[in-house]
Amino acid sequence: MNIFKMKSVYLVLFVLLSQYSLAQNEKKSIDFESYNPPSSLVVPEHVLGRSKFPFIDVHNHQNNMSTQNLGNLLAEMDKLNMKIMVNLSGRSGDYLASAVRNIQQTDAKRLIVFANVSFSGIGEANWAENTVKQLESDVKAGAQGLKIFKSLGFSVKDNKGNLVAVDDQRLDPIWAACGRLGIPVLIHSADPKQFWDEPNAQNERWLELLTQPGRKRSASDGFSWEELIKQQHNLIRRHSKTNFIIAHFGWYANNLAYLGTLLDSYPNMNIEFGAIIAELGRQPRMAKIFFEKYQDRILFGKDSWVPSEYSTYFRVLETEDEYFPYHKKYHAYWKMYGIGLSDEVLKKVYYKNAIRIIPGIDKTQFPD
Question: pLDDT for 70-80, tens place per residue?
């Protein structure tokens, strides 16, 4: 065989080997999101469709409560053992009043609405005075709390087009009014810290940001994550006579030791765990210690109304199950473990703390 034929043979072999190597690599590669094999682990499982005790969900959203068939909603709540739902999307004025009428005509004991204030016109003469008057009217109509959405600090602007901080002193009359009226403020500020971090393989929320790109935040959006969180804490400190319920554990469910220092510093600060149960489920021992220590400050919250997802919450709180999945892989790719809370702590988290903080709840619906 001459040298030219030998080179041709080697070239063909090289090409074939390269193609084989590529084919093998392609076979070995796999999409992370689609890789979800069932566990071979054999351990006790307690999948719960109902909570052990009746509970109050202080963080829910129903966007047409003024007209919807509330009987159907109550039937779904009964399946879960949810005794009371707090609808944080109560709006204001005529809509809120009509929602309250619909509730009263169905079951006045089991559905609660929180009002929402309009931030349009901040900086105009008498804006704060008029806003407080409307809030007072909403409370008189039946609102039992105030919900502040994350738009405050993100997108709310004053009458001159300037971004309004969460702790803007022009809003102080609102928080003071809530203290005077005896209603809590459930406030959502910022988002998970990882939404501001670089979206790469070092970011725990990278998969979520890839599948939900609208959740990505950056410095150009306005306030940084640190600034938004600090503003919220300034607000709590400045209005010590007003009860605050901080949504989503204040985005410190991944740092419970630090969250504990905040609760120690602010007696008027309470927390609810809407949409962060996966953080608690991956640290069951730390979470149980935290719940036992701060059992009087934690409320049950879910956020989105997807009845099938409540099972995850019950399982984390009530059982000692091991290595079970969250219901959304893009949100939590890790497995979870049950905390196994005592009945005493469960009752406080499920309903006693909410009864103490939210006015007007009929206590006779609950066990001692």
Answer: 999 999 999 99
